[in-house]
C-alpha cells in the first residue's frame, strides 16, 4: 500500500505518471470515464491518502497530495481532477464536526477499504454556482423517515464513479435550511444525463444529474443551517501544511 513516508515515494510517483499516461489519448478521444485509472489508484491506496490516520488513511499533507495530483495530471488530467475533488473532500471532512459521526466514519472507511469516491453536486442550470448567492432549486422535503430530494445538477465531475454525492440543496421549511445532504450514489431515483461533450477534460464525465424523489435518512442532512443565518466563514479551511519528509520527491512533477 502506498504511503508518502515510504523511501520509494519518488519512484512511486514516477510510476504513477507513466501508468496514468497509458490511456490518456484514448480517453480524450472517447470521453469515457477513466475506470482503469481509478481502479489502479484504488488498488494502490491512492484514493485514501487524505483520510486521517485515525480512520485508516495515510493522513498525507497538502504538499504530498499536491505531488500526487501533479503526477496524475502529467499523465491524464481528467483523472487528476476527480482525485483532487476526493482529497479536498476528505481534508474538509476531517475538520467538519457538523457531520453525523458514524456517517463521516463510513465515508472514510469506504475510501480506505474500497476506494469510494465523493464529490459535491452544487451547480444548477438556473442558479449557476452557489458561490454567487441564491437558494438552490434542489429541494429536500421532510418525511417521517427522513428526506425526499428532487432537483437537477450540472457539471458533476466524476459522477459515473462516485459512491457518495454531497448535494447542495434547501429544505421545504419556512425559512428553509440550506447546505449539504449526503446521498449514496446508488440510491433509487438518480438519473445521469450524459451531456458532457467538451473539447477538453472529456474523461471527467461532468454530466448532469436529476434527482427524482431520492430518499435518505434524517441524519443524511450532514451540514445544513437556516438560510437566514449562515455560519461564519472560516479563515483557514485546512490545517497548516506539513512538509513531506523528502521535499525533493515531487520537484520534477
From TrEMBL:
Residues 231-253 are annotated as: Disordered. InterPro entries: Acyl-CoA_Oxase/DH_mid-dom, Acyl-CoA_Oxase/DH_mid-dom_sf, AcylCoA_DH/ox_N, AcylCoA_DH/ox_N_sf, AcylCoA_DH/oxidase_NM_dom_sf, Mito_Isobutyryl-CoADH. Transmembrane segments: none annotated. Residues 16-85 form the Acyl-CoA dehydrogenase/oxidase N-terminal domain. Gene3D superfamilies: Acyl-CoA dehydrogenase/oxidase, N-terminal domain (1.10.540.10), Butyryl-CoA Dehydrogenase, subunit A, domain 2 (2.40.110.10). It holds the Pfam family Acyl-CoA_dh_N. Residues 124-214 form the Acyl-CoA oxidase/dehydrogenase middle domain. GO terms for molecular function: flavin adenine dinucleotide binding; oxidoreductase activity, acting on the CH-CH group of donors. This is Butyryl-CoA dehydrogenase.
Amino acid at each position: 500500500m502506498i504511503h508518502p513516508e515510504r523511501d520509494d515515494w519518488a519512484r512511486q510517483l514516477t510510476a504513477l505518471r507513466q501508468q496514468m499516461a497509458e490511456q490518456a489519448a484514448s480517453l480524450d478521444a472517447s470521453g469515457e470515464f477513466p475506470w482503469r485509472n481509478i481502479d489502479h489508484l484504488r488498488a494502490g491506496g491512492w484514493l485514501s491518502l487524505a483520510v486521517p490516520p485515525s480512520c485508516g488513511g495515510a493522513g498525507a499533507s497538502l504538499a504530498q497530495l499536491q505531488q500526487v495530483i501533479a503526477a496524475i495530471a502529467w499523465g491524464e488530467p481528467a483523472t487528476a481532477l476527480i482525485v483532487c475533488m476526493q482529497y479536498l473532500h476528505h481534508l474538509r471532512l476531517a475538520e467538519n464536526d457538523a457531520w453525523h459521526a458514524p456517517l463521516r466514519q463510513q465515508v472514510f472507511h469506504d475510501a480506505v477499504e474500497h476506494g469510494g469516491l465523493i464529490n459535491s453536486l452544487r451547480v444548477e442550470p438556473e442558479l449557476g454556482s452557489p458561490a454567487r448567492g441564491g437558494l438552490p432549486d434542489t429541494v429536500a422535503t421532510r418525511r417521517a423517515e427522513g428526506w425526499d430530494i428532487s432537483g437537477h445538477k450540472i457539471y458533476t465531475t466524476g459522477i459515473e464513479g462516485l459512491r457518495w454525492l454531497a448535494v447542495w440543496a434547501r429544505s421545504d421549511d419556512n425559512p428553509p435550511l440550506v447546505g449539504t445532504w449526503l446521498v449514496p450514489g446508488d440510491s433509487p431515483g438518480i438519473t445521469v444525463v450524459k451531456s458532457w461533450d467538451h473539447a477538453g477534460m472529456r474523461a471527467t464525465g461532468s454530466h448532469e444529474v436529476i434527482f427524482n424523489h431520492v430518499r435518505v435518512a434524517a441524519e443524511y442532512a450532514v451540514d445544513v443551517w437556516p438560510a437566514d443565518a449562515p455560519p461564519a466563514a472560516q479563515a483557514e479551511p485546512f490545517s497548516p501544511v506539513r512538509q513531506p519528509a523528502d521535499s525533493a520527491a515531487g520537484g520534477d512533477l
